[in-house]
Write a structure and sequence with these properties.
The protein is mostly helical. The protein contains 14 helices and two strands, in the order H-H-H-H-H-H-H-H-H-H-E-E-H-H-H-H. The longest helix is centred in the middle third of the chain and has 25 residues. Keywords: Signal.
Length: 293
């Protein structure tokens, strides 16, 4: 646990430890930012975005090796996690995709919703399929396909509801099995949420180009991961408060700040939080969570 925490802090915690450095980056100054981040002389954040995206598993090497995009199926979003936590992260990522996909379905934005029902089977399921029995989880690949097909056909209705229930039942079974295996479920969950936020950071960075959202799907992925991460923390909130109420309060504050970047499932014309501010909020979350792991 300690090792993965240190790796994650290295991505952006400089903004907490060194306020002047953070101000330099946020102000778009041409001064030299902290080590590991470079900035164009015109003050753009494109190079910094590239570095953050690579940290979060968006590199070409990960895609070529079948590890998926956005830190999802094997990038640094799950680097150094033990098997139980890595499996839990994959389930959480599926949940995140389905969360935002369902939002878009409710708004009858079928074309926008479809990628979020395809990603779980295309990027994640193959990596956990052989582990499902270990977690008493029924296979749900066919249900994922049926769910995506119902969205592709822009029908929804009974087919969508039936497939959704099958997938959800399998995810519930996985989550119950995971919880039963853990002696200290609250800190276990906190660590997984941090990995999920790391995946969201990569997606968010990949969504922005020249100060605008150019990839709505990546924005939506990040939204789904952050919102589901908050839901995961609600399940263990009482135990985390008991362990350190002040720290958990700071965690909640950081989560709210991250959520403010997503006013809705459709990206705003201009980011509510630029990548630097989003990274700062993610770092605040990780630092606040340290006493809870």
């Amino acid at each position: 646990m300690k090792k993965s925490t240190k790796i994650w802090i290295g991505v952006g915690a400089f903004v907490i430890a060194g306020a002047p450095a953070a101000q330099t980056v946020l102000a778009g100054s041409t001064s030299i930012p902290p080590s590991g981040f470079t900035q164009k002389s015109d003050g753009s954040m494109s190079t910094m975005r590239m570095r953050l995206a690579q940290h979060a598993g968006h590199g070409a090497t990960a895609q070529q090796s079948g590890e998926g995009e956005g830190g999802e199926a094997g990038g640094e979003g799950g680097a150094n996690l033990p098997p139980d936590q890595l499996f839990t992260l994959r389930i959480a990522q599926i949940r995140g995709h389905l969360f935002v996909g369902n939002e878009l379905v409710k708004g009858k934005q079928w074309d926008a919703a479809l990628p979020h029902f395809l990603h779980p089977s295309e990027e994640i399921y193959a990596g956990i399929k052989d582990q499902l029995k270990d977690y008493n989880t029924p296979e749900f690949e066919e249900a994922l396909t049926a769910l995506a097909d119902s969205v592709k056909d822009k029908k929804g209705g009974a087919a969508y509801t039936k497939a959704w229930k099958t997938v959800n039942d399998s995810l519930v079974a996985a989550e119950a099995s995971i919880k039963a295996k853990q002696k200290d479920f609250a800190p276990f969950t906190m660590t997984v949420v941090l990995a999920l936020v790391k995946s969201a950071l990569g997606e968010y960075g990949n969504a922005i180009e020249d100060g605008k959202f150019t990839k709505p799907v990546e924005y939506q992925d990040a939204r789904g991961f952050i919102f589901h991460g908050e839901d995961m923390l609600k399940v263990v909130a009482a135990d985390l408060k008991k362990k350190d109420a002040k720290a958990f309060g700071n965690v909640q504050k950081a989560i709210r700040e991250l959520k403010s970047a997503f006013p809705g499932p459709t990206p705003p014309k201009k980011p509510k939080l630029d990548l630097a501010k989003f990274s700062i909020a993610a770092s605040r979350l990780e630092l606040a969570a340290s006493p809870l792991q």
